[in-house]
Structure formats: C-alpha cells, structure tokens
Specification:
alpha/beta, about 270 residues, 11 strands, single chain, three-stranded antiparallel beta sheet, about 15% strand
C-alpha cells in the first residue's frame, strides 16, 4: 500500500488545515487581508506538527459557496499559502483539496510538491449546488499532462452534503472506482462534515477493496478514532482538533496530542 511508504508503515491520521476564505470569494475578509489567512494557516499547521499528526491536507474550506471550477487567483493563493506555511517548518506528508475542482488541486499539488489530492473524481451526485458529474478522464489526463502521475488521488465515494445518483451498492461503486477510474484512495463519509462515517459502509468498502487505501473522511473524534483505524487504512480529521470543537476556531495542539494517543491504541 502506497500509504505505508508515505507515512512510515502506520495508519495515518491526516489533519485538515482549513484555510480561511481566499480573495475573490464571498466570505473573504478584505480588511484582514491575505496575510491574516496565511498566519492562521501557519498556526494550524504548526499545531498539527507539534501534536504529532501523521499528515496534513490543505483545503480551501471557507471558500463558500464552492465553485465547480476554481479560478486562477484561488490556485495562486493556495500555492502561495502552502509554500509559505511549509517554509522552514517541520516536513509532514501533505495533500491538497480544492473544493470542488480536482484539476486545480492537482495543479497546486504539482507546484508545491504535495503527495496526494482529495476530491470528487468519479460518479454523479445531487446536492445543494445541483448536479455534479466530474470529468474523470479529463482529470486523469490532466494529471499525466502536467507530470503529476506520482500524485495520488483520493476520491469521495459520496461527497458531504450530497447524495449519489448511482443506485449500485457502495462496495460495487468502490471496486469500479478503483478499476475504471484509477484512483489510489477512497474516502467514506457521513452525510455532512462533522458527522461520523458509518462503520458498516467503511467496513464493507475495506473488505471489498484491497488495491486502494480506504479512509474514514468525517466525524473522527477521540472516542471513535481507535475503532475507525482498526477498520480503515487511515482517516481525515478536523472538527475535534479545533479549540472547543468549533469548526471556525484554530487547531489546539493538545487536542492533536490527545487524538494521536487514542489512535495508537488501534
């Protein structure tokens, strides 16, 4: 499994650096400016590193409402922030997630040296923003075109806040996502951010897919992380690491340490 090489033969706990709204988006704070966005991202990254996290995903979490195609200033801002945050900091395996544009995530990953991206790469979904059908072939072709074949792709089997229009069993969808869409990782999520990944679905996907890494993608916390890692190959975590478990707050290094202690019991 590629995760063994990247994360050192452990089941990785990947912490989210939720980047505040970037220039050009509805929630961007023009008075505080990009330097404030950078400072908060740096603080979160350093807290994750201090707490002993296995890996990091940089995500433009607060660029709501999300766009199906990230504009060039988002790609530029993300690249700048990631480069600056990691300059002189502890080196941790990292990935990129740009909502909802995996091509943009691949571009940033290629520019910054990220090892993987997380996104929505295959399937058809319906949710708050209407219908979403990613261009799977175009995404994979773009990865090859920009020389990013080494960048692994994690895809959501069901994106948060959405429902799949594919009526096949989730196991069959997982198997064909790996076989026909050539993804290296599968993310199993709850119905929305912060809600626990259904154990039954996570277990089923893991049992039927051996050639790709399976991650629990939402709702991982102090009480669930050990059990989740007994099932999955890794997990992504955000809310429980924030101060007072408030999504908009900064990450607390003590929460990271506590979670990693629990994870080691898996």
């Amino acid at each position: 499994m590629w995760t063994d090489d990247l994360f050192g033969n452990q089941k990785p706990v990947i912490g989210m650096v939720h980047i505040q709204a970037l220039p050009g988006t509805v929630l961007y704070d023009g008075k505080a400016g990009l330097e404030s966005v950078l400072a908060n991202a740096r603080q979160d990254y350093e807290s994750l590193a201090e707490g002993g996290i296995s890996g990091v995903i940089f995500c433009n979490e607060f660029d709501k409402p999300y766009s199906m195609g990230a504009e060039s200033h988002i790609v530029a801002s993300m690249t700048h922030i990631i480069d600056e945050v990691r300059r002189g900091a502890k080196d941790i395996p990292f990935g990129v997630d740009i909502q909802w544009d995996p091509k943009a995530a691949l571009a940033v990953a290629r520019a910054t040296g990220a090892s993987f991206i997380r996104g929505i790469v295959c399937g058809t979904y319906c949710g708050d923003y209407g219908l979403l059908t990613p261009d799977t072939e175009g995404i994979l072709a773009y990865r090859h075109k920009i020389g990013a074949d080494a960048v692994k792709i994690l895809t959501n089997l069901v994106p948060e806040f959405s429902s799949s229009l594919d009526t096949r069993d989730i196991c069959l969808r997982a198997r064909t996502a790996v076989k026909s869409s050539l993804v290296e990782g599968l993310c199993v999520s709850g119905v929305m951010a912060g809600t626990r990944t259904p154990y039954e679905q996570l277990r089923s996907v893991k049992e039927c897919v051996r050639e790709a890494a399976v991650f629990a993608n939402t709702g991982v916390d102090f009480d669930s992380v050990a059990e989740i890692l007994r099932i999955a190959d890794g997990c992504c975590v955000a809310t429980c690491l924030k101060k007072d478990a408030v999504p908009a707050n900064r990450i607390d290094a003590e929460n990271v340490k506590r979670l990693m202690e629990k994870a080691r019991k898996a």
